[in-house]
From TrEMBL:
InterPro entries: FlgO_dom (IPR041215)
Organism: Thalassotalea piscium
Domain FlgO span(s) in chain numbering: 80-208
Name this protein carries in UniProt: TolB-like protein
Short name of one Pfam family: FlgO
Amino acid sequence: MKNLISAACVAALLTGCSTIDNSVSTQANETQVQTNNELAASGAGDALFRFPKSTMNNKTDEEIFQGPALTKNINFYMRGLMQDLVSNLEYVNGRTPVAVTSFVNLDSDFESSSLLGNQIAESLMHEIHKVGIPVLDYKVTDYLRVTEQGDFIMSRNFNELTNNIPIRYVFTGNLVKHQGGYLVNARVVGIKSKAVVASAQSFIPASVAKAILDTEPRVSEQQIPLIQG
């Protein structure tokens, strides 16, 4: 009789535990469903539960959470152009003074440049200095001009600049507007010999060039008044 009672008690306990486990499992499932519904309603669950498995396997955690890479600017392409110039550069070393001129459009009269051409020259000056070649900025005057608009030492007025500057070689080049961007032709030329001692080419995508050219002030077209005869 005692054995029967003991067996009945154990069965009752097991039945009670099973009932408790089922209750806990049901409550957990209901909580998970409610959480999923809230995420779906807010849209936050899309990236977590609807992300393609194949894409997840091919991406690291940093790529997933940091987003797309930053767009390359003009300095990236000028760095590559400078590396190509240095790779075939002759007669220029750490004791050879050089200068950099604005890059002009190939189909122009070489008398004017654009903001893109001027920025290419500025970027190249930085890259040339980094490799240890002395760069002379011939636009620097011998005096400071203090005005209400600011304080200046640079000028584009030829009469304000020094005539005798020990420049031996010049980094120069031109631009060709191409489908999808600008083709850059760069070279290093001797001032006296006119000999090309290095050359390189690069391509600037239209999106990179547009980011600079869009900030350039545009000259409004001259309006011709109509006069009644």
